[in-house]
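Quick one: co-fold with UFG.
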Amino acid sequence: MILVTGGAGYIGSHLVMSLLKRGEDVIVFDSLEIGHQETVETLKEYGNLKFVKGNLKNLDEIRGAFLGNRISAVVHFAAYSQVAESVNNPQKYYYNNVYGTMNLLNAMLEFGVKEIVFSSTAATYGEPEYTPIDEKHPQNPINPYGNTKLIIEKILDDYDRAYGLKSVRLRYFNAAGASSDSKIGELHEPETHLIPNVLKAENNKVFKMFGDDYDTKDGTCIRDYINVEDLAEAHIKALEYLNNGGKTDYFNLGTNTGSSVKEVFDICEKVKGEKIPLEVCPRREGDPAILIADNTKAKNILHWYPQKDLKYSVETAYNFIKSKS
Ligand code: UFG
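Sure, here it is.
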């Protein structure tokens, strides 16, 4: 049985769906502060899913998820992930993301579970010194959110050395899209991400483009949008890798290609088949001009090959939004 923390959230729910479709038994541990009960109910239709509502800040609650369940590995998504909020309220981020993870690791050690796949982020690299970014790029986060993820990466190295706990850290670039059947997708409140914000824009809720004066081909920021089902597949590969005795390691998850905010906007207009109201606004603080992943290492070691392009991600995101409205 695989324990998935944050399995009712955006990326976690897509992994849970993939695991269930493969016939794996899954236990989801989620506080439902960000994740959704509705997502859990939808996922139950895909296989054997046990749901435990709990908060990682409470050691007894996470211990409760291990008690009586034969857990072979953990995939750990549960975290706060809003960069701006982390700058204004670092206490919330360190307490939840770092302390919460330490409780999870305590429970893993107590119950003898020695394999974990951890959701890390491109934000651990900070301002890029070069692109595409490979795993040798220095890690110098520029906000508390990135710091929390980097601290956990270091904790995982130390726990391997001392306790033999094996980890794979997956550093996501920009997750995009929804499930192919439109049953689950991105449901953040408030929504800060580009694709849902463009697709949900209307005349009384104009899409705000944060800056068109960057040093890029069309002046807007460039990101590496990786399909969320491709991301889920990488976690499956990481679990297989650990199960086969793989050593602790870390991988970038992206596509090796970048798309500008304008390009994403144009694809959204095409998919929606209508003009989307747009306002060019000042830059958003802390946005690097270009973030593109070098994914060679994940290809070579995990044998992970992303399959779905940005247009497909936008189409599935739009189908999901339509199904909710
Ligand atoms: N953008 C807009 N308008 C919006 C939303 C976004 O113009 O309403 C722009 C942003 O300025 C940025 C690009 O679209 O240039 C992508 O922004 P997102 O918020 O979708 O994604 P980020 O690249 O800021 O964030 C992602 C992850 C974070 C992670 C970060 C690390 O979502 O969790 O990468 O770099 F911390």
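If it helps, The mean pLDDT is 97.
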